[in-house]
Amino acid sequence: MATEEAIGPDSGGEDITRPIDDQIGAEVGGRDPMSSVAIREQLRDYIVANYLFGSGTVGDDVSLLDEGVLDSMGVLELVLFVEETFDVRIAEYDVVPENFDSIGAIASFIEVKWNDVRQALAS
Amino acid sequence: MDVRTLEALGDTPQPLQPEPFHRGVLTIDAAAETARIIEYLRGSVLQKLGRRGAVVGVSGGVDSSVTLALAALAFGPERVVPLLLQEKESSPDNAVLVRELCRRLDLEPRVEEITGALEGFGCYRRRDEAIRRVFPEFDSTYRAKITLPGDLLNHDALTLFALTIVSPEGEAHSRRLPPAECREIVAATNFKQRTRMALLYHHAELRHYAVLGTANRNERMQGFFVKYGDGAADIDTIVHLYKTQVYQMAEHLGIPEGIQRRLPTTDTYSAPTTEEEFFFRMSFETMDLLWYAQEHGVAIEEAAAVMNLAPRQVERAYREFRRKHRATSYLRAPILALDERSRGRAEQPGWSTRG
Fold first, then answer.
1. What is the pLDDT of residue B123?
2. At the top level of CATH, which class does the domain A34-122 belong to?
3. For the whole model, what pTM was predicted?
4. Which of B97, B122, B231, B304 could form a disulfide with B311 if both were Cys (CB 3.0 to 4.6 A apart)?
5. Are the Cβ atoms of A2 and B182 closer than 8 angstroms?
6. CA pair distance B304, B318, nearest whole angstrom
7. B177 at interface of A, judged by CB pairs closer than 8 A
8. Could you state, in order of their start, the residue ranges of all structural domains in chain A?
């Protein structure tokens, strides 16, 4: 029987006594909790730097897959970048076009994941 | 040699004539197709390339077996060399099936052991070091393979490589592959195909023969080959045939049943890996028809009705095919040159083509 394990930042041992938004903010580089716009800009910077030779830009709704920006190795790299930069754990079933096909989709996915953490910590 | 270069030479077997889409659209007249390929091989190898026979790398799979049988018919057994390239992780079934095939074709297989060459390249060491970064417990008693999410038709999962190791007790563990380790495992493993290629050309040069490629249409168009590895050959013998058509040819050519029934595998990783779980993510029967439908502009609704699938499933397959074809275009690209005219000079009159 195969076991499936997502590889991601170790979330064990985190300090749950801090305010929730502080925790999330600290986990993305010690800054204040990121706005949706800031998330998108950070994603855009990464994609332009790594897949477009540092030139041009990508709109929020451009399909990264259909436009050939990402190939299968690019998907692996982007998933790892999102995990490490935004401190979200990503399971295999999360890696679907609905979540990863555009900058807007990825940003929404990250915000949903953060909301899940907030709700879990608040309950 | 890539597809475009071959097409420039002319007379490449073209896909069979399109007709209205139906479930039997890929059924071929295998006898007529055999005659067509034999004529093509003779014209290409003997006349265009000026070689005297053919070398075929054989694995005991259906593609290389069909290619070998066609070569034997085209040139006669005395002008064909079947080459079995074994290494320590090859399935023992390969040799058994190749010998049975060669007996039937009146051929004598040549066997080359490439484990030493692969150890020299660091193939196993580089790969295993990368695997251990993901699974520290991995050692020589384990087996490993790379897989993709299955069931493409019913799930929107993106291409996300996973590494699976199998313990000596048979327990399997899978984890998503980090990009660096994924690249290292693939690059190390590709030594296998490129070492095989080097030996195929060695044996071809010994005899002034050509190397016959064994890729089918699915493999070439979706990029399921190693550039300058199993993708390297002088002639792409069956690259115009879909996998299910290769099986029809196998039946017509009398390929041993053990080979026809064998589940297609990559024969690349130490743990058994089918081509479906490693790459294609659906059955060949379904994939061939959907690929044909997309190539021929069959509307999603029409393809779905013929194949008894939901339009959403067909749309998902079409999208995956387009992405995979584009993502692997690098593999099929010719060597680029700033001045393309300089590429063709060796083929113009007055220029020697001898190396």
1. 97
2. mainly alpha
3. 0.82
4. B304
5. no
6. 11
7. yes
8. 34-122
